[in-house]
């Protein structure tokens, strides 16, 4: 099994991914929005937990690299999954959840490296 397959399995086993199935049974767009928001919030909590876990393994240089890469990633998520126009700010929760779950899987890979070999700051 390749790392990308493993990341997909991790993402599919996350609480956020399983909750998404129920959103397709929503009565209307507003129910769907509430559901997708809940799923995104769970994915974001999972990401925060993974970030904190990874941070505990890192030396000072690694912590700095992690902070920098996370800021860059937040910008990417904003560019990819949201936009602003004259009527407001819009977020595509499916996109945000997908990208956030991928980032969580990336952190899981880095945590595994730190636990079983050594943390590689250049991978952050």
Cα radius of gyration in angstroms: 16 Å
Average pLDDT, rounded to a whole number, is: 84
Q: Could you tell me how far the N terminus lies from the C terminus, measured between alpha carbons in angstroms?
A: 23 Å
Strand count, sense and barrel status of the largest sheet are: 2 strands, antiparallel
Low-confidence spans: pLDDT under 50, at least 5 residues? 1-20
Strand order of the largest sheet: 1-2
| Succession of helices and strands | HHHHEEH
What is shown here, in short?
By secondary structure, the chain is mainly α.
Relevant terms:
single chain; mainly alpha; two-stranded antiparallel ribbon
Q: What are the SSEs and their pairings?
A:
Elements: H1 3-13, H2 15-23, H3 29-57, H4 60-81, E1 82-85, E2 88-91, H5 93-116
Helix pairs in contact: 1-5, 2-3, 3-5, 4-5
Polypeptide structure, described:
This protein has helices spanning 3-13, 15-23, 29-57, 60-81, 93-116; strands at 82-85, 88-91. It has 124 residues and is mostly helical. The protein has one domain (28-123). Strand 1 (82-85) and strand 2 (88-91) form a beta hairpin. Helix 2 (15-23) runs antiparallel to helix 3, helix 3 (29-57) packs parallel to helix 5 and helix 4 (60-81) runs antiparallel to helix 5 (93-116). The two termini are 23 Å apart. The model is unreliable at 1-20 (pLDDT under 50).
């Amino acid at each position: 099994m390749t790392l990308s397959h493993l990341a997909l399995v991790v993402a599919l086993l996350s609480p956020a991914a399983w909750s998404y199935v129920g959103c397709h049974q929503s009565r209307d767009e507003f129910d769907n929005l509430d559901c997708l928001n809940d799923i995104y919030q769970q994915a974001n909590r999972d990401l925060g937990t993974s970030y904190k876990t990874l941070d505990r393994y890192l030396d000072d240089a690694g912590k700095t690299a992690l902070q920098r890469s996370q800021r860059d990633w937040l910008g990417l998520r904003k560019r990819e999954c949201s936009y602003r126009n004259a009527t407001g700010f819009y977020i595509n929760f499916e996109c945000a959840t997908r990208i956030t779950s991928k980032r969580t899987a990336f952190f899981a890979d880095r945590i595994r490296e730190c636990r079983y070999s050594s943390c590689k700051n250049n991978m952050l």
